[in-house]
From TrEMBL:
One of its GO terms (molecular function) is FMN binding. Keywords: Oxidoreductase. It comes from the Bacteria. Residues 23-168 form the Flavin reductase like domain. This is Flavin reductase domain-containing protein. InterPro entries: Flavin_Rdtase-like_dom, NADH-dep_flavin_reductase, Split_barrel_FMN-bd. Belongs to the non-flavoprotein flavin reductase family. It holds the Pfam family Flavin_Reduct.
């Protein structure tokens, strides 16, 4: 099994590429954050995010990190948003939601509800959320989202992002 050589010295963080490589060592779940549009055509607005984590049970909070300068986030944050935790088979949809805005929902029949939240069908979890707080953090904003309602199926395998690619989880038995 490969591992880091403990005799190799630590280096200062001066190379952004090396920092991204180190960050890619940590697997993360991938989500869609979406809501109904405000225009006459009512097209949904959404984006994918790979910096997602659970935060708190009381109050129920999750977080996503959004790049400063995102053109999508300012249009999303005004109302209730739907967070869809992508399932293992949804890598193509995830990539699409990270692409050009006019193509993000091509081939997707999103689920909308009366709150204005929009969800990706087939996901492992749907969370109805509102913005709890936004915290500036370097070149990103940490967005805390308060969960108002949810539905989930833990038996659906999630999409995992690791080392700049989508991966599958492997269940392992405890060693006796």
């Amino acid at each position: 099994m490969n591992q880091i050589d403990p005799d190799r010295p630590l280096r200062p963080v001066t190379d952004e590429g090396e920092l991204k490589r180190a960050f890619s060592c940590f697997p993360s779940g991938v989500v869609a954050v979406c809501r109904s549009g405000d225009g006459a055509d009512d097209e949904p607005i959404g984006m994918s995010a790979s910096a997602f984590t659970t935060v708190s049970l009381d109050p129920p909070l999750v977080s996503v990190c959004v790049r400063n300068g995102s053109a999508t986030w300012p249009t999303l944050k005004g109302g209730t948003v739907g967070v869809s935790v992508f399932a293992a088979h949804q890598g193509d949809i995830c990539r699409r939601l990270a692409g050009p805005p006019e193509e993000r929902f091509t081939g997707v029949r999103p689920i909308s509800d009366e709150s204005g939240a929009v969800y990706i069908p087939g996901a492992t979890a749907h969370l109805e959320c509102t913005v709890f707080a936004e915290i500036p953090a370097g070149d990103h904003i940490v967005v805390l989202l308060a969960i108002a309602a949810l539905r989930c199926d833990p038996d659906v395998e999630p999409l995992v992002f690791h080392a700049s690619s989508f991966r599958a989880l492997e269940a392992r038995r405890a060693q006796s």
